[in-house]
Amino acid sequence: MSPLLSQSPVPHDVEYPCHPLRALMGVIVALVLGLFVVGESFPVPLSPATVALSGAALCLLIAHHSGIDSVQNIFKDVDWSTLVFFMSVFVLIGGLEKTGVLSSASGILALLIGKNIVLGAIVLLGVVGFLSSLIPNIPLVVAMVPLLKQYLVTVDLAAPNILDPDFTGNLPVEVLPLFYAMMYGATLGGNGTLVGASSNIVAAGIAEQHGKPISFQTFLRYGLPMAALQLAAIGLYMLIRFLKF
User: Fold this and answer.
1) Which of 13, 72, 213, 237 has the fewest CB atoms within 10 Å, measured from its CB?
2) Residues 177, 180, 181, 183: what is their CA dihedral angle, to the nearest 10 degrees?
């Protein structure tokens, strides 16, 4: 037996019954993934949240009525602490937006970098990369997108209509490096700490459930150097590829 397999928290010598409805739930999962991609393009748009909740409810209904497992046992397997953590962070970000903190931050950004796209992209890459190591990248991007749009309007790099929640047009090509920088910073900076990315938190929660907790310090020791190298590499790539520096 492989040494890695012997250390797995999942029992390798347990036979799991093959229930015929398990295949149906697999089809539901595949359908949910497909609707994530195309659901919002339907005449009656299906948001990702609607798709996810509908798929979960359907699988829960099948599992309960077929006797695969009880609702109570299924709910016990849910990582509630992770869900509460994300809900709290999203509430915090929403509060910052509603109280005008993000709007004020966009004004500071305009004063610091003006219309310099090159400088702005590098600053955003570093700042967002750092923030992503402290804040999960999903709510961070949710907060940064309106901030960045407000900055573009403030320095006259984009029309005010991009601030409309229903805006579906195209952004000016010359400002796209700023959004690339935000995307790369949020994605790669999250590798630095345990709380930096959703996947890190979920994986840590699963590991703890199986008696293999991962401490913040342990993750930091390996993650921080890797994130720094990745951000440096992508910064060089952006200078060469996007900014023609």
Assistant:
1) 13
2) 160
Within this chain, do residues 88 and 195 fall inside the same structural domain, yes or no? yes
Split into its structural domains, the chain has a count of: 2
Let me know: does 175 contact 109? Beta carbons within 8 Å: no
């320095």: which residue's tokens? 155
| Cβ partners under 8 Å of residue 107, min gap 6 | 154
Report the distance separating Cα 30 and Cα 27, nearest Å: 5
Phi, psi angles (nearest 5°) of residue 17 = -65, 140
Tens-place pLDDT, residues 91-136: 887 787 788 887 788 788 888 888 888 888 888 999 999 988 888 7
Q: Are residues 36 and 86 in the same domain?
A: no
Is the predicted pLDDT of residue 5 greater than 70, yes or no? no
* 151 and 109 Cβ atoms separated by less than 8 Å: yes
In a domain, 34, yes or no: yes
Write the single-letter amino acid at 17: P
